[in-house]
Amino acid sequence: MSTSTSANGWRHAVQESVSGLPRAFWWLWTSTLVNRLGAFVATFMALYLTIERGYSASFAGLVAALYGLGGAVSSIGAGVLTDRLGRRPTMLVAQASTAVLVAVLAFVQHPVAIAGVALLVGMAASGSRPAVQAMMADIVAPKDRVRAFSLNYWAINIGFAFSSIGAGFIAEYSYRAGFLIEAVMTMACAILVFVKLPESRPDRAPDVAGKAAEPSVNLGTVLRDGRFMGLVGLSILIGLIFQQGSVALPVAMGADGFSSGDFGLAIGVNGVLIVLLQIPVSRFIQHRGPGKLLVVSALLAGYGFGLTAFAGSLWLYALTVAVWTLAEVVNAPVQMGLVVRLSPTHGRGRYQGVYSLSWSVGSLAAPLIGGRVIDAYGAAWLWGGCAVVGTVTAVGYWLLMRGLPEEEGEEEREAGPEAVSGPPEREVPADRAS
Q1: 238 and 107 in one domain?
Q2: pLDDT digits (tens, 9 = 90+) for 77-116
Q3: Fewer beta carbons under 10 A from the terminal one: N or C of the chain?
């Protein structure tokens, strides 16, 4: 095959992956990219506190935990606001608040103040997630949602890769400058949302009596949705596995005599593969059922980390990272598409909030579990445990998908100033409506 033919084939694949999505999606995608390009706090908070401020590693861990706790707390509230106030107002409040609080964090010095502001930053930074995901579900046609979530996940990782590199150089000059740059970028994201994105929350269709035809949705409705809460539980398990890449992997590699630079090279495989594979993988999974894809992703995640027990060289560590990265590339968009499919149209914010909470719980629990297992039994037991959890999660996905009806076609509707696709997946059963 000639080089020109290969290039033409690659261009055709890219065009098919990005074509046909509404303009509003691309503004939302751009806001995600801008937001992630400015990421600094979450990546360099521990180094800032220990190196710049001279605090202990324990205090840095406490602040990181408070940051994560803030995200867990805000997930539910942001989901409710997404349904009540709308997607756009929730994003604007969350992003503007994040910008202000990150700027404040650059100047506070008292440890109690740092801890308190970090908690608030965590709350604000996570506050826009349910709104972003709900808006994406509103404006993208059902047949294109997995592809859209793949592209959005791609933007997150492109932004993270470049921000991590840039933030490393900025930190050598000034940590405070890094915080202020994040504040400016986050405010730019809020301005972009304000200028370019219309509200997408669907209006309730009135019945003949003038009342809403769809039953209302509250948090009780979400918590009583057995299939969805099963997905949330499986999301926590898969999150516990993936988080070990940043929690336990550096500890295990350090114990084996590898340097922080070696870990950087190994974990860098994750970012590079996501950037390279997300588009072709999204084309592959776009029209395939979620059940088998989720089962395979769970097995790849579990056994990818399980193989780490046998890694004795840098290239073997990199190989294990490649295996579970493929699982991540498949799992993230497919699971997000399933969340939307299981969510009633007028409860998308609350459903997305509870789903976001599952990842926050995984992020909080992973360091505690991983560290405890390594200290008590050794890293090999942790990697074996990941394989077991991956197997359990795969079985859980298989059971969850049994009896799930095929997704029905949905008609276009008007949302905001643009015609966008995003009609309801299903109604809330009367016995689960409040």
Answers
A1: no
A2: 899 999 889 999 999 999 999 999 999 999 998 999 999 9
A3: N
Is residue 214 in some structural domain?
A: no
Is residue 389 assigned to a domain?
yes
Rounded to whole angstroms, the Cα distance separating 190 from 185 reads 9
User: For the chain, how many structural domains are there in total?
Assistant: 2
- Residue that finishes a domain, picked among 174, 202, 230: 202
| Backbone φ, ψ for residue 12 (5° rounding) | -65, -40
**145 and 293, same structural domain?**
no
Q: What is the pTM of this model?
A: 0.78
Which DSSP helix (H) or strand (E) runs through 134? helix 129-139
388-397 tens-digit pLDDT = 999 999 999 9
Chain-centre distance of CA 126, in angstroms? 10
Per-position DSSP letters for 322-338, written without gaps between them: HHHHHHHHHHHHHHHHH
Q: Is 414 within a domain?
A: no
Q: Which helix (H) or strand (E) holds 14?
A: helix 3-18
CB atoms within 10 A of CB 192: 17
Instruction: Give the pLDDT confidence of 132-152 residue by residue, as tens digits.
Output: 989 998 999 888 888 888 888
**d(C-alpha 179, C-alpha 167), whole Å:** 10
Give me the domain span that covers residue 91.
21-202
Contact call for residues 18 and 151 (beta carbons, < 8 A): yes
Over residues 247-259, mean pLDDT = 84
Examine the domain organization and report whether 35 and 129 are in the same domain: yes
